[in-house]
Structure formats: C-alpha cells, structure tokens
Amino acid sequence: MEWIDAEHGFCACPGQPRHTTPSKPRDCEVFLGGVPSLHCFHSSCRNDIDDANRRFRRALAGGSVNGAGGETRTQPNAPETARQRENRDFERLKARARNSKSQILHNHATDPADLFEHSPVRLLNGPANDWRLLLGLFRATDVVWIGNVRDSGTGHAWNFRPVSEWMAQNAAPGPFTCPSTFKPEVCSRSMDNVVSTPFLVVESDSLTKPEICAVFTWMRQFLKLRAIIDTGGKSLHGWFDYPHSPGVGGELRIILPPLGCDPAMFKPSQPCRVPGAWRGDRMQALIFLDLDGGSNG
User: Fold this and answer.
1) Model confidence pLDDT, tens digit, residues 214-252
2) CB under 8 Å to 216, separation ≥6 — which residues?
3) What is the rounded radius of gyration, in angstroms, for the C-alpha atoms of the chain?
4) Rounded CA gap, 148 and 285, in Å?
5) Residue 263 to residue 253: CA distance in whole angstroms
6) Hey, where are the domains in the chain?
7) Among 193, 177, 187, 170, CA closest to 273
8) CA-CA distance, 166 to 135, in Å (whole number)?
9) What are the angstrom distances between the C-alpha of 247 and each of 89, 197, 204, 221, 222?
10) Which among 102, 123, 120 is positioned nearest to 258, based on CA atoms?
11) pTM score, two decimals?
12) How far apart are CA 193 and CA 184, in angstroms?
C-alpha cells in the first residue's frame, strides 16, 4: 500500500494481468471513507475489482475501519458519506482525464484544415462577414454583448443589443462576445443579467491548434459542435451546444482542465473572440460553422 492519508491510498490492482494498456503505480485506488472500495482506472479488470470489493467489504464489516495508522473510526453519517462519495468521484474523473489526455490527443488527432474542409457552412468568402455568420447561431431577438473586454458597466448599454440590431452594422462591432444572452436594456455582463447560455466555448492556451482540434473531435461524440474560431493568435475557440444535462456539464467541468482547457470559459459572461474582427494585423476567422438546428434554424 501507498497511503496518501488515513482514508486514501494506492495498491496493485488485483486484476492487473487483465489490463489491456500499460499499468501505472497509481492506477488502483483504495478508499476507506464512506463505503470502503477499490477503484481502478482500467476497465478490463472490472470483474476482478468487483470481486475484490466484495471481499474487502466483508473483511471490514462491523461498522469500523482500521486505516494507515491502525486507529478505529466509526462510519460517517449519510451527508458525510455523500460528500465523500462526491469527492471521490471528482478525484477519479480528474485522474482519468489526466491519464487519458495523451490517448485522446492521439486517437482523435485532427488537423484544423480538415475541419475547415468539412464545415457544413462553406467558408469561402473571406472572414470579414464571419461575425454575421456566428450571430446566426442566435435568435434575432436575443440580446447579445459585443465589445472590448472592459465594455461592461455604466455607460456601456450600447454593447448590449438584439442580434437584429447588430446585423445592421457595417462591420464587426467589436473583438469579443459571450456565448450567452442577456436581459434587455442592461449595461453589465454580470451573472444577474444573463438570461440563457445556449453555448459552451472551449479553448486552451497550452494546447497546439491540432491538439485542441483533437479535444473538439473527442467532444463531438456527445456535444454538437457549432463553430470554431481562429483567434488570430495561438489558439482556437470551439463553440458547442451547452451541456444542460447536469451529469454531462458537471463532468466536463472536471475533465476539461486536466486536458489543458481553460475552466474560465464555463462562466456565461466570459468574453470570447468574434470572427471578422481585427486582432492586431490579423483578422479573427471562422474555420467551421454548423447552423443546422440552431436558434435561427
């Protein structure tokens, strides 16, 4: 055993011979808090883990558990058990994401040029009007914020307009927007002013463009990809239909940061890049767009 604390440690997996991918020292975890259990990152040994858990719990039956220091402790109450189970699930997901990162980047390797070629909306006319195309994901009556990062608060009501009014502008109204809609006649991106969050934007400052495209491709297995924006810098922004299922959304909040993605993008009021707007001497541009079934049909 390698004990991390009195209730959590690591051991050799009882089903290690069945592992179909290389075994690592910390693949199999032991938890003594709540319901005593073993958990292995590998799935091929599940029957061995289930059998080991049955034997493990029978051996510890009686309402008390001896931990790393040999002391005896009583079983926690129901709220404590639920909290411990939630913490265990959180740590397991993080560990699985860390361990799966290289596999995801390898198995879902995608070149940005391939996503451009397979964009449902053909993007062949240059990026100057890409901001209009992105706004096509919203309804005409949706109030959307567009501007610079600091264009929020007193004096910035102009930056909150229905999509139909933005469409009347001659050029991209600003370099940033939000994947959310806001209340009419507001001037601040505060959470209290958010009406809905139809989209989740995923981006990374540490992954290369092909690597973040691999993450996008992996996510397309369970979320609809709507748009990818080349920010004119080192990163790409992927727009997905927001995972309103608590299970999927909660897991993504845990999984995406270990994969190298920015957790700040889960904030509905977080600014993200507008295609068709300039960033220095480069214009931000769409490389993928899917309007099928979107707010504007």
Assistant:
1) 999 999 988 999 999 999 999 999 999 998 876 778 888
2) 110, 115, 202, 225, 228, 236, 238
3) 24
4) 17
5) 7
6) 2-107, 112-289
7) 177
8) 9
9) 12, 17, 23, 15, 12
10) 102
11) 0.70
12) 9
